[in-house]
Amino acid sequence: ETGVTQTPRHLVMGMTNKKSLKCEQHLGHNAMYWYKQSAKKPLELMFVYSLEERVENNSVPSRFSPECPNSSHLFLHLHTLQPEDSALYLCASSQDTGLPTGELFFGEGSRLTVL
Amino acid sequence: AQKVTQAQTEISVVEKEDVTLDCVYETRDTTYYLFWYKQPPSGELVFLIRRNSFDEQNEISGRYSWNFQKSTSSFNFTITASQVVDSAVYFCALSEANRDDKIIFGKGTRLHILP
User: Fold this and answer.
1) Who has greater pLDDT, B56 or B3?
2) pLDDT score, position B104
3) CA dihedral (B82, B88, B94, B97) positive or negative
């Protein structure tokens, strides 16, 4: 059983829909991340939260809106997405954002398809 | 700028063969960290190893071994006596000490172990 749980595992949505991805970590970590994994592209860091505060936003379009209500939960709210946003969205956590820990614990991802 | 190159997009070997996954990195920092992650079909990335730039000692863990060579900016990963369960996508990643949130991943190498 993974320490990071993501729901839903699969999501199909139209471009006008609003949906949310949920991530929950059971590891007592202080930092949480959203990554985007597209076919044939490197993993892209989208957002970083440390102790519920956003510390990194890698120029992600506003149609992606993160929310971190507490250190165990992370959401990614989606609205008016484009077909090119179809990807595997991975949530990760780490003890803290600072190195040298650097070890990320990933969830199994939410496979998003935008029609 | 930092960059991680995994030139091998996809590799297939027969079970019990040895296989080496290549990773070449670029960074201007003298202090940095290198990682390998494994992504099995279930989707979650699993941390395998972290190595800091001051420790060039090679490491062996069971059938896995890592060869870190600063002179060639490489951090290669070898699986000895491969098994079907080793089939996965393997990612090399880099993080600079002064950019602690940014773990930059390579594009990954998809490894097929054929029975």
Assistant:
1) B3
2) 87
3) negative
Residue A84 is encoded by which pair of tokens?
């090119």
Between chains, do B44 and A97 touch, taking CB under 8 Å as contact?
no
For the four alpha carbons of A37, A42, A46 and A50, in that order, the dihedral sign comes to positive
- Which A-chain residues 62-101 have CB contacts (< 8 A) with chain B? 88, 90, 92, 97-100
Contacts of A85 (CB under 8 A, 6+ apart): A63, A64, A78, A112, A114
Helices (H) and strands (E) in chain A, counts: 0, 11
- Which tens digit of pLDDT belongs to each residue from A7-38? 999 999 988 889 999 999 999 998 999 999 99
Contact yes or no for B5/B23 (Cβ under 8 A): yes
Mind telling me how many Å the CA of B68 is from chain A's nearest CA? 18
Cα–Cα distance, B39 to B46 (Å, whole number): 6
Q: Say whether residue B24 is in contact with chain A using an 8 A CB cutoff.
A: no
Residue A5 CA to residue B45 CA, distance in Å, equals 13
Q: What residues of B are in contact with residue A40 (Cβ under 8 Å)?
A: 107
Tell me how close the Cα of B97 comes to any Cα of chain A, in angstroms.
7
Using alpha carbons only, what angle is made at residue A90 by residues B100 and B87, rounded to the nearest 5 degrees? 100
Residue A106 to residue B95, Cβ atoms within 8 A: no
